[in-house]
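Sample pair:
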Amino acid sequence: MRVTARRIGLGTGLATGLAALAVAQPARAEWIEATTKHFIVYANGSTDSVRRQAEELERFDGVFRFFQDVPDAPEAQSNKLTVYVVGDAAAVRRLFGSGGSNIAGFYLPRASGSVAFTPGRGDGDGVNGLQPQVVLFHEYAHHLLLGNFAAAYPAWFSEGYAEFLSTVRFDKDVFWVGAAAQHRAYTLRLGPSMTAEQLFAADRRKLSEDQTAALYARGWLLTHLIETDMDRRKQFPTYLKALNDGVPGVEAAQRAFGDLKALNRQMDARLKGSTLPAFRFPLSSLAQPTVTLRALRPGEKAMIALRMRSDRGVNRTTAQPILADAIPIGARFADDPTVQGWLAEMALDAGRNDLAEAAADRALAADPKSSQALVYKAQVHLRNARAAKATDPAIWREARGWLLKANALDPDDAYALLLYYSSFGMAGVKPTDNAKAALARAHELVPQDPGLGYAYATQSLFDGKLDQARTALRPLAYSAHSGADNPAAKLLAALDAGKTGAAAVAAGGGGSEGAAD
């Protein structure tokens, strides 16, 4: 494939076409579910607008795979990203809760189903406003990076790369990669700056709000330079390997890039220029998206707001009011399998196993092939067996039987595989080889889930597979969103100190085999 590079003006309104998602809601807006190969999108809009959103997401997935030469996987059908499109950034922040005062969208990687929340309207209509498509593409770029590359990425690149891809632009017959991050223009021009050396040394956990904004903006600038300058691009793997080998950030950068002051001058020169290099590819390089649309049924529409609050993530306390509001809706729509499935999950979160099983039974009565309902049944039976401190293997076999039924319907359901593995820890026995294989497959399917990655790493240590354990631990240990003393970092330190197996897991604060609940 021949790549065409073109320089695009910094002040020429590169957000053209991105504002399509930010228009006012049409008069005939309704809640719609759009399903594609990689996504399930819930949005309150017209069929045309929701279709466009889903198509653009699928095209963006194709852009990533084309640009990075990453093949698609058939099992993507079983582990789609669910995207909730809400009113605006303020609605996103309300869903996020504490600590989300400055976010515009967020993404949660989970074996039970990864989710993203994005606004339907942007922050301002100008060229430098943050548009919904940019937010959504940024969040999905994280999902793709974590899911396709088993490496630890520093904060500046993790965010910078997501910014770099988020500005992809689709024209009639071509698409562009490398357009300017106009929404970072203010920070780049007038806000606080960070030198290349400061980026390489940055610990996101210790940055102020202004410094974090600078990390995003300058991280994009450095990533743009590395992606579009072939000499710098060749140096980047050396830097990343050194970093993953435990070399401190600045030293790793010096080994790969040489004089960091020269690199910084190159960054500043690019920023001060009137144009940016970008890649142009024919749109025919991407598969034509296939989108299936349906209006939500009355019960789903009544439940969708609660579903979003539940799917955002709750604890036993915050789950109670959601369940209280959901119970009467579930009673009105007892024959709707989706409503009953959502209700079952809300009841599980609230610790009401009786209500959860009843809802799962109603879901199965309406749809006997609901693997989701079978998984909920399994969770209830596993919890009951653990609460009873059951030692009879037959009780545990019966509980696992629901997972085997779910697996027969969908062999690539990562959560069912993870639960099968964790059921042995719940029973207080060592996992079987089949259970270990289920864990490994779940990790292969959803490597983005940090809890799943940690469980796979510890099981690998118990089995004497140090290389696999280190590979799984590094992205967790060096994550910009984790504390410096996170369990994965402690476990890596124990391995570096010469500990192995159970001794290493114990030193890292881990538990016994099969503990992934």
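Strands lie at 4-9, 30-35, 39-45, 81-86, 106-108, 115-119, 169-170, 174-177, 275-282, 292-295.
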